[in-house]
Amino acid sequence: MSDLTFERLRRTNLERSKVWDPTGAEDKTTEDEIDFRDLELRGEQGELANKIKKVVRYIRDMPGGIAPDAALPEIRDELADIIICVDRVADCFDIDLGKAVPEKFNKTSREKGLTVFMDEAGPGTEAHQGLYRQRPSRAFPGYQP
Length: 145
Prior knowledge:
Layout: H1 6-20, H2 22-26, H3 31-59, H4 68-92, H5 97-112, E1 116-118, E2 131-133
Antiparallel strand pairs: 1-2
């Protein structure tokens, strides 16, 4: 895995925005800027869907398909574009993805009775342990004493 953090992504996204789109970098909270970043994200999601559609065509032996291994570099790029755009939208609302992602991950695990949780402390802290598993309890389906 990489050493990428959401903090590093935000920092470099902000720096690039100042050069690439100075108008949008000036005020990220305007309706126009929020709409633009949302459209940017949706566009990247559409590009990913198109690549996956072509892989599905290949799997179904339909014309216009692309083998999964041939499509992988493009799928990888589109996923990266989506993550970049998600950060740009989150920036409009001052959302710290480094906190929001583990909180939501753990909330879903609790709601679904799952035993895999993400440590919310983050790397570089004494409490950080990456993923951890809770011991099964009577509250979890499938508990066996």
